[in-house]
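Final report, Chapter 2: Outcomes

The project's central promise was a pipeline that accepts a single protein chain and returns its three-dimensional structure in a standardized token representation, suitable for archiving and comparison. That pipeline is now operational. To close this chapter, we reproduce one record exactly as it appears in the project archive, with the input sequence first and the structure output second.
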Amino acid sequence: MAPHLHGLPPPPKTRPPLLGLLLPALMSTVASLPALVPRVSYATGDGRRALDFFHLEGLQDFDSLLLSGDRETLYVGARDTLLALRVGGSGPLTLQSSVPWRASQEKTAECIFKKKSNETECFNFIRVLVAVNGSHLYTCGTGAFSPACTYVDLSDFSLAQMATGQPLDGKGQSPFDPAHKHTAIMVDGALYSGTMNNFLGNEPILLRSLGTQPTLKMDNFLRWLQPDAAFAASFSNGSFVYFLFSETASEFHFFEPLTVSRVARICQNDKGGEKLLQKKWTTFLKAPLTCKVPGQLPCAVVRHAVLLPALAGVAPARVIATFTYQWQTGGSVVCEFPLEAVEAAFAGRFKEMNQESSRWTPFTGTEPTPRPGTCSTGPSSAKVLTFLKDHFLMDGEVTGSLLLAKADTTYTRLAAEQARGLDGHPYLVLYLGTDSGRLHKVVLADGGGGEAAREAYLVEEIQLFPKPTPVRELLLEPLQGVLLVGSAQGLVRLPRANCSVYPTCADCVLARDPHCAWQRERGVCGSAPGLPRGPHPSPFPWHQDVERGNPRYACGGDIGRSLRPQDQAKPDVVLEVLAARHILVELPCPRASALASYEWTQGVPPNTVIPSRIGPSTGDLLLGPEADGLYQCWAEEAGYRHPVATYWVHGPDRPRPPDPSLAGVPVKPWAVAEGGQAAPAGSRSYWPHFVVVTVLLALLVMGSLVALLVPRLAALRARGRVQGDPISPREKELLTPGDPRGAQPPDKEHPDVLEVMPPGVVGGGGDEGIRP
């Protein structure tokens, strides 16, 4: 049975023509699949989801995180600085020590001379931070495009003094460019790193350094890695060290280069060749890594991966990895790869380059003995090494099982764990960091149908940082039950579970979080490590149902709620609303889950469903004057229906007794329309509306009068200027009182002058006109 899929992404925006012809047919099979929606979302600063945010003025790029052996101290590699923070206990993150580690002025000047940015690139970005022993750390940084490494003395948290007085050369251990992908892991005192080995960023390398074994690296002439290889993760298991990365596929030929993901394997006891491949890897092999979505093109770019250790008798060791698409921005999928499947690919056939067709084809000849790539104790023969130089690519691909797909999200980092529920069943829990600074907690539950029918359930979505910024590092500390998240802005610590936010047994069970369970006697939703385990862990009953999320099944007598609308389901509390005759009342419906559907009813069950009168985005109900009665907002999730808000509306002058069906349910005053107490839901009166409308009408009338008077006044001013034209002294002498010549006919050039003069005025200008 195929796994339950969620939220498959839309077709790529740009793609090769051949793929563009195939995509419409491919997408038709996935268009009807549901989206993966977070049940609860928390914004930054939401008091319901506590976060501990650490940052320092002028400090940024918290990219490398490492926990001490006692789990009490967190070592952080930031830009130009190393930090030691106290993370143990319940107090906030506090700074214990810090040591600056900047690139020298000479290296910074060289970086600027090479046309790199002095604002974003020419710094020392810490890229490697690993524990050597109980007294020292080993760290590497970009060093302003001149990689450097050094030791950190934990006794006083200072940079150890090298014999040369200068940091060690970090080439091959840290990238030159802070934007380049990299990975590093410490195994038995040896550092295995995957990064870019030159300034231009076109020479990928797998390097083993430190420790007692000889230093080994890639042979660039053999092109075992493509120039654009981007490393995502590394881990060790048994005798091998594994690297996950993406690169351009040399075995495929399309109109555009095709990016594929790979898993590479090397032996920890590799000594290098004696004559061939001296100081080079002699056990390097790589195989295709594919995360497929039915009806979609494979997700080609691996972004991050973790190894989940085997759980004895329950689950084998497996790799969990997140992928993105080559030809579109946005959208991610998460797949799991059993380590047995990875080993099976390396035990399969090799590929070889067919010289006649210039294509990679399966090798069908006789393999040399011992098999190339195995961890033999002695040096490999020349025959084996000659074969390995041309047969480093495996024919079989490692195909993962799809866990989830998210069309509108790009996952940058992940952490995973097996969390046991009260029934003893282990549930896969994923913590996924996004490129916008969010954290998704996803639980994989089989719903009773076994591993093949697992369903991805997004428990919560948390906005971690004040400004959207990619999650750069994600560290799970299961013993303390916390997550540590690094970004460019700072560092966040948060509990992996948020059980206390669920006030009832039904809410606790509907969350389907294996870390949370309801404790009946205490009346709280508790979180691990306080949860009991085993068939009879505690004399007090706990309630949990991760697989189905059914409160009626899990809570039993603890709930007075129903699965069927016709059942008489009593609410936890009735909110009394007093509304005067002229009051409009707005009743809110609290929406605790994005997966539930909500509706309003009037009266007691069986009741009448009424539509929301404000909109589905809020779900509130707007009541007119004197709309007395009982109103309930119902939520239905996972087949379970219950009232989330119950209001009893009446007026002081029209008292209404509570319905007999609500006997025994406590009544709480919620809104008072009169008496000086404001209603929480925003009760409104007609009087404010009347005042506002009156003021607006007055302003409108005044505006209209001004619009009519202003042009008229302007015309009068213009005419006044015409009447005030100067006249000669002779004209003033002639136009004296009593002079018969003062009576002149109207001016032919200004026929309107006399028309606007007061009665008796026959000529003149300004204040010297003639009056009768």
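Archive annotation: The mean pLDDT is 81.
This record, like all others produced under the grant, will remain available to the consortium after the project formally closes.
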